[in-house]
Amino acid sequence: MIGPTGVVVALVVVTIVAAAVFFVRPSITGGITGKILAFVGLCILPGLCIVMGMSFHMQRSEQTKFCISCHSMEAYGKSLYVDDAKHIPAQHFQNLKDKLAGVKRIYLQYVSTPPNPITIAGGFKNAQCLHCHLGARAFEENPVHVSIMDSLTSNQMSCLSSGCHDTAHDVANLSHEKFWKPGT
Description:
53% helix
């Protein structure tokens, strides 16, 4: 059975062959059948190539191994597997995979230059944590959170720099970490 990559490659080859035939022998397009074939070969097939190629690459981009295949993301990807419940990136990745946030990173990798070190655009805002954690009983009933809730919601105190949750993608110290293996 041919996979999605094979289908896309086959469509691209058929499209190139059709374009070459119409380029070498434009007289083929003289009749109605030739015009229909030219329309299919020069419009429909390239459109299918684009749609199927995008679909294939979107599915591929939803996998962590795609994101960490870029050299600039390698250490950040590795930090997702740190076996420490207090390590925020690993904790969130191992429980909730956020796939769409990487689209901008893909753009930067292929169209521009990724920043070094990689940072969150506009800085870190507590709203990124509170979006999920507000409303969670364990978060809202935690005495520490209750006592500083106003400072957290107003962004006067950072969830990351307050000394509570300060381990975020500690890529400089990965060589000293124990790593989690999915499925274990």
